[in-house]
Design goal:
With 54 residues, the chain is α+β, with helices and mostly antiparallel strands. The protein has helices at 2-9, 40-51, and strands at residues 31-33, 36-38. It has 2 helices and 2 strands. Strand 1 and strand 2 form a beta hairpin. The longest helix has 12 residues, at 40-51.
Length: 54
């Protein structure tokens, strides 16, 4: 995560101590998009479609 944030901000690895990543577990079914509840299985299916997996 830190590498991604640094790259997006245009910062080098020496700036890594400035990036803090806080992880909060979310129970399944607590995500929403487009007015609908999105479950973990839905996200996995979408990710597989994006990679061309069946």
């Amino acid at each position: 995560m830190t590498s991604t944030v640094l790259a997006a901000a245009g910062l080098g690895p020496d700036e890594a101590p400035r990036v803090w990543v806080l992880v909060h577990e979310q129970p399944d079914g607590t995500w929403g998009a487009g007015g609908s509840v999105i479950r973990y299985a839905d996200l996995v299916a979408l990710a597989r479609q994006g990679r061309g997996d069946a």
